[in-house]
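Posting for a labmate who doesn't have an account.
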Amino acid sequence: MLHFTGVPLDTLLRIGALAGALVVVFYILKLRRRPVAVPFSKIWERVLRDKEATSLFSQLKRLLSLLLQLALLALLLLALGDPRPQANLVEGRNIVVLIDASASMQAIDVAPSRIELAKEEVRKMVRGLSGSDRMLLAQMDSAVTPLSTLTGEIAELEAAVAAVKATDATADFARALRFAGDTLSGLPSPEIIVVSDGALGEPADAGGPVRLGDIKLSFLPIGKGSRNAAITEFSVRRYPLDKSRYEVMLEVTNTSDEPLDLELSLLGDGQLTDLTRIRLQPKEKLPRFYPNLSGASKTLEAKLALADGSSDDLPADNRAYALLPERRRARVQVVTAGNMFLEAALLLDEYLDVTFVEPQRYPAAASFDVTIFDGVTPTVAPGSGSLLYLNPTGTGLPFEVGKEILDDDPHYRLGFDELDAKHPLLRYTALSDVNIARARALKGSKEDRVVGRSYKGPLLIEGRRSGVKFVALGFDIRESDFPLRIAWPLFLLNAINNFVEEDTSYISSFRTGAVWHIPASSSAETASLELPDGTRRTVPIQDGRAVFLGQHAGFYTLRVGAPGAQEESMFAANLSAPQESAIAPVAELKVDGRGAGAVGEFKIGVRRELWVYLLAAVLLVTAIEWFTYHRRVTV
């Protein structure tokens, strides 16, 4: 039984009666005898005889023409009513399809890849929708991106399938489920279909486990293989005292269930610098440390390949990227009345551009990365950069200076009794045996960090105020044996290095799947970001940081400013997610304590929208009418 879902039947009957009457009236008015010029009476007699012989056939021809026109009218009215079978009206579903586009879906264990196979399976679902089903497609990675509306239009849904692209990020499964649940809330026959290899993690977030209620959950598993090795960590650091040299740390993981023979390559500025063969047992992790390297000035890249030249099942995690911290000269302002030990230590680093300023002439007419206050504490001027206080006194400081401490206890020497040995300020130093004649205890806020203290109070602290970092040493180095030790210049250069390289190390290697805040000119509102594939995006700048959701690994270039006067900076991003590299497909999916069922029936051809066929019939009848008219069959 058919139901009209477009124009109601009674309305169609009224329109049909009126239009049919008009067709008949106009057809009758059109019936006129054709004038025939007859030059001779004998011919006139012949015409009359022919007319009498064919009058019945002519009437039949004219009646056939009327019937064709009425048939055209009937077909158009039926198409306007959009008739559908009753079953299509009762069995309609509201479906949200979550297509996993995380990094593991780039695996090639199925041809041509997991993501392409998933898209083909979703296309089959779309083509198998019944006339009353509605579907919404959403891409699921670190974000949830709806690619269509909740619709039954095949063209829109197929375009949404084509727009799905895999990323180098993990899937936020909980967020995707909450999105789907909110979309289907209050709709009849709700269903969520998850198309994935199952590497999705627990369906829980800060709000707790996801609850789906009475929403039906179905799962379409994708993938077969599990052979994979990955670079799961990669970082680089320049040496503080020799910025032409650097060290690299990386980690290689075999996530498969079989041993693998691998080749690990390290490239600097695109040139091969190291090649190593390694063998990893199943599930084994191998850290690799490369000390004292040189030759690269900007970019580093690590590559992993099977020793036999073939590829594992997930090439996406076989490469990692890092950007070497920039080797620029640090601008240092030293406010001192004269200190030979301080001046000598600053001569050890060729990448320091040092300006000495007498206390009464502070500040110098320039902008600096670091300012060192030696025994003086003036009001900090704009453009001073990060601050290093040596023997601070007075008020107006970002911390409190306590009373004087003397080395007057015969049983204990005044020095560093407790040290935060892992702090960057103390890298390569030994301060536990430094002797101090007199000092002042320093007291910072609860957010500040005590790096070194004596039994009488803190002597070395570091912290941050209004975005400006500071370090304070609570004694005059000339009243100790500190400057006579190799630890003194190391400490000083560590402090400067920690100040200057903070932002550079922050942006040298982001993790994919997170919102990045990239240092940029605060005077601009937008910036141009070039992605690893060469495409460009315009990104907003907020509080001196360009904001961007990074989904792909590789090298990025940020450009700020007008063409010809642009500030350009680079940074790297990596897929460092062992859960994405463990690509063994999962056969079952559980949410809220219940397992997902198999995907229901989607059959190509069950979608019967009859108005399409009715319009096709209209075109066919029109063609017949045109042909018979011009062949003078119906006239």
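Reply:
Got it, the structure tokens are right above this. Residues 41-81 form the longest helix (41 residues).
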